Protein 1
Amino acid sequence: MLNEDASVQIKYWGVRGSLPSPLDPRDYRSRIQEVLKRSKSAWKENPDLSEEAMFDSLPPYLAGVVGGDTTCVELRSGEEQLIFDLGTGARRLGYDMLARGHKGDLHVLMTHTHWDHIQGWPFFAPGFIPGNHVHFHSCIPDCEQRFTRQQEFEYFPLAFKDMQAERTFHTYDQGDSFDIGSFKVKTEALIHPGGSTSYRVDQGKKTFIFATDTEFYGPELKALIKKKKPFFKGADLLVMDAQYSLKESEQKIGWGHTAMVIAVDCAIEWGVKKLALTHHEPAHDDASTYRLFEEALEHNRQYGDALEITLARQGEVMDI
């Protein structure tokens, strides 16, 4: 029997868009220098200030990292699990699953197969374990062929067919619904070059929506937001593509991504309770990403802080 109050956790294993972007050595050095400068000033003013208090006083872009791995998000509720996309963040997820002793069936919901959403699969340890059964769910009729081509010998030394876990591909039409364990999943088409799929996952009274690689922009924006409202309405947590600044979205029409402030507009119109901004632009360092996040927070304040907004960061865990 389903426990409607069961805990649902989301963990971000990869939040970067387009391609992996590890911390640059020059950026790392400049961060260390700024932390030392701030620490020197703080301890001069208060010699008894603890290291922990000093760390807590740092701005977010110095106290942690947004993360450089590409899209991979895990949903867990009790013993049940869903995985959204297999970007480079899937490598760390796979090791974590081995450490937890996860065996048997696992379910991957694929939004689309651009490189930044599938590159982690050949390094996903559970895919090499005999007895595991990986179920790929998507609205991509030739999804298996796409994964196979990624591991042709010219591009990768081990073929897709040589990975020892059993693999099954489940294909749906956009708009279809299906069940995975206690999760009720519904699909929705998104605007993105080559297409992309959003997933709405309902379990009891809780709703999670994953909507990366989608473009909300242009003269028909208000009509598009309204059209999509039935699918997105009232989600407890929406994880949404927010790769661009508003200026970048104007310059990159047709590239398939959304500005942070427009993601805020969407979530407010849809009555979402919490919005997590993700798929961060690889050309933005963490300070730039946080500046865009501050703009999104200021935009939300114009609505009277109608929405709870977070910046998706690699390694972060959120409860629904």
Protein 2
Amino acid sequence: MNLIQAILMGIVQGLSEFLPISSSAHLVFTSNFYKVFKDIPVEAHSTQEVFFDIMLHLGTLIAVLIFFRKDLIDICVALWNGIKTRDFSSNLAKLGIYILIGTVLTVLLALPLQDVANHLVFHPALVGALLILTGGVLFYSEYMSKKNTSKSANITLKQSIIIGLSQGLAVLPGFSRSGWTIATGLFLGLDRETSARYSFLLSIPIILGASMVYPLVEIDVKDLVTFNWIVIIVGTIVSGIVGYLCVKYFMKFISKFSLNIFGYYCVIMGIFTLVFFNIFN
């Protein structure tokens, strides 16, 4: 892995983590396009590549923590006050509880699917097919949202459960985490900004777990000294900067415009990769 590849993948991660186009799919595509052009077997996948992907997610985690720092502080204060008073009736305290519930449900659904997700990393054509399905989900959510005339700005327990499960499905590369959670929110009657904001807040515990827990469990410490840390650090910084800008401008975009443009992108990109990797793999 070289510096140019690291910068490119940092940009891809920063853009695709928060846009509804599946960051995991784009990391699979970017990595495997590179392998095809360098005549490297798609099945070749080093420990450093896995760790690098995790660090790219850490970069975008830092970005979303900075952007939503006020929301996070307010939610933590509300939860702390709720613990002290045993009163969780405030909207912020409820939101914190719903994020915790959604996270637990995400993990419960994602863990059994993890082996399938790991298998898909080496089958980019199948990931392309799942990306096409994500495009269909975005189209359908916009259709249902337009039919629903009463939009809500407050999350309910039922909505948090369903959105948490949809995030669990997004462990599969090609199923966009932000796409499926935002689309589910729109489908359930949430307004556009609330759906996006809740999606990003719900992502924090999951990205944190993937970025911190997975390396401690799966990565051998002895391997760390063999990694190209300059490449890893540069990629992480790039993903963080691009991710922050992406969240900032996507929040403005989603409040005014449809997700259909991302639906078209997912379908076109999915068809292209499906055809490309069926030919060259």
Protein 3
Amino acid sequence: MKHRHIDLGGIGFSLIECDNLIREWDDCISERQKTYVCFCEAHLWTRAVRETDVAAALNQADYVLPDGVGITLGARMCGFRFHERMPGPVIMLRYCAHGVDKGYKHFFYGGGDGVAETLKCRFEEKFPGIKIVGTHCPPFRPLADVEKKQVADMINASGADVVWVGLGAPKQEKWMEEFAPLLDAPLLMGVGAAFDFHTANRRWAPAWIRRIGMEWLFRALTGGPKMFMRYAKTIPVYCFLMGKCALRRRLGKK
């Protein structure tokens, strides 16, 4: 890929504008160039900084994009500036709309029981003419080797150009790292909660809240005790790690 990267705590983020990003993805599909994309927010980033397997999954990706305001603000603390935030649910809508006229074929992998199929129905209504060639909701347990082969064969048989992966972070990033060599589809996208947001299975923050960078607070307050505790645990760790990154930058260290 021709785009630049910046380093935040050992994780390489793509520095690219959305219009250029879409053109590059179009090239990946036309050239059948295997590519996987991670949308990284503060929780995933803190996991990656501390866990080598998560870091490896992100750093093997062709694109790591700034999903949350924590990443864009953290980058500024470290002396970098992204062109824009690129939340997975928003990019999913944009690229699905973009791909209708091009005839791209999509596969939805992930979500709870029935979510991927519901998403297929919603998107066929929202984007008339979209080609959704398959859906699959895997079990929450690890897959056996024979099941992995069955999944790869199923996705390959669909002829998908884009596989949207909604397993949650960091499970979906590890899945893409493992399955990218097994799949014929050139483009894998790990979009996390997008499946639930776009099926109204979970509340998505209103657009004005997303614009001011407060989606994380909305999710913490409306996502139930589990989501609240995730943010309560993540924020102090994020502040410490990002502060450490910023200090090292100021001192001229890597």
